[in-house]
């Protein structure tokens, strides 16, 4: 299975980079992982809704340019479906069974994802109704993907 994470925003914190490296190493047993980091657009303080929409659309076009036609796209979206780790593991397995071996997880910038990206996605997933820094969320996503593979392989994991 090929898993790509497309994330808007640059990782700056060393401890987050180390966590990403650790989960990337762990995941190498189960899949080919590619992380594509895209620059975020600077949002001015007190930006209008129109300005925010323009920023999201610009980031969205850049995201879409990195998605191949044969990819199964999972948008990380607050309006998406919330599932358990076990359900997430089954979801990944089912994608493979259905011939979707190129999974692309998309993490938007601070303003979220554009309607174009949401429209291109095959599935919308929400980890929580809480808001997380997108840099930290990248680590959380990789941890859950790793956990999902452990579950599907009948390997121990912490509940």
Automatic annotation (TrEMBL):
Where is S-adenosyl-L-methionine bound in this sequence? Answer: 108, 127-132
What are the alphabetically sorted keywords of the record? Cytoplasm, Methyltransferase, rRNA processing, S-adenosyl-L-methionine, Transferase
What InterPro entries does this protein's entry cite? Answer: Alpha/beta_knot_MTases (IPR029028), RlmH-like (IPR003742), tRNA_m1G_MTases_N (IPR029026)
**Which reaction does this enzyme catalyse, per its entry?**
pseudouridine(1915) in 23S rRNA + S-adenosyl-L-methionine = N(3)-methylpseudouridine(1915) in 23S rRNA + S-adenosyl-L-homocysteine + H(+)
Q: Which family does it belong to?
A: Belongs to the RNA methyltransferase RlmH family.
Q: What does this protein do?
A: Specifically methylates the pseudouridine at position 1915 (m3Psi1915) in 23S rRNA.
Gene encoding this polypeptide? rlmH
| Top-level division of the source organism's lineage | Bacteria
Which species is listed as the source? Answer: Clostridium cibarium
Indicate the quaternary assembly: Homodimer.
**What does the record give as EC number?**
2.1.1.177
Enumerate the subcellular locations listed in this protein's record, separating them with semicolons: Cytoplasm
Primary localisation category: cytoplasm
BP GO annotations: methylation
**Entry's NCBIfam families?**
PRK00103.1-3 (NF000985), tRNA_RlmH_YbeA (TIGR00246)
Gene Ontology molecular function, alphabetical: methyltransferase activity
Q: Which Pfam families match?
A: SPOUT_MTase
**What protein name is recorded for this chain?**
Ribosomal RNA large subunit methyltransferase H
Using the UniProt record, name the top-level EC class of this enzyme in a single word. transferase
